[in-house]
Specification:
133 residues, alpha+beta, 8 strands
Length: 133
């Protein structure tokens, strides 16, 4: 029995990753989700966070920013606006984005959600950028 499944990560610009994976953890809109081989079918919205892909050879980390995940026939497909490796994240830019996000004014539910997402986005990127140092 195969211990791996196909994992594909796609952004609007490119296919970021296509590999055999043993385990993948990604941020769903309502918490972290894990996928192993022979996972039952699934479709869910992605949240903002770090995605980890464990392959037989190594581990890949990505910052992902919303989108969708689908598991079907032992294949996980991640469609996301952004999938950036830790070395592609600029810690200084993330720190600046965090300062800007915290300064955003809250006037209604929509602005509260935008501010929360911006803060989360910046914090995750900062943590990921610092993990590579």
């Amino acid at each position: 029995m195969a211990k791996t499944f196909q994992c594909t990560v796609i952004t609007p610009e490119q296919k970021v990753l296509e590999c055999d994976a043993e385990f993948v953890a990604f941020p769903a809109h309502d918490g972290e989700m894990g996928v192993l081989t022979r996972r039952s079918p699934l479709v869910c919205k992605l949240g903002i966070g770090t995605m980890r892909v464990d392959t037989p050879q190594d581990e890949h980390l990505f910052f992902v920013d919303k989108g969708f995940a689908q598991v079907s026939d032992n294949h996980l497909t991640i469609l996301t606006e952004q999938a950036r490796k830790p070395d592609e994240v600029d810690a200084n830019a993330a720190q600046g984005a965090l300062v800007e996000a915290r300064a955003m004014k809250i006037t209604d539910d929509e602005s509260y959600t935008a501010r929360s997402n911006a803060i989360q986005r910046a914090q995750v990127q900062l943590k990921l950028a610092k993990s590579t140092r």
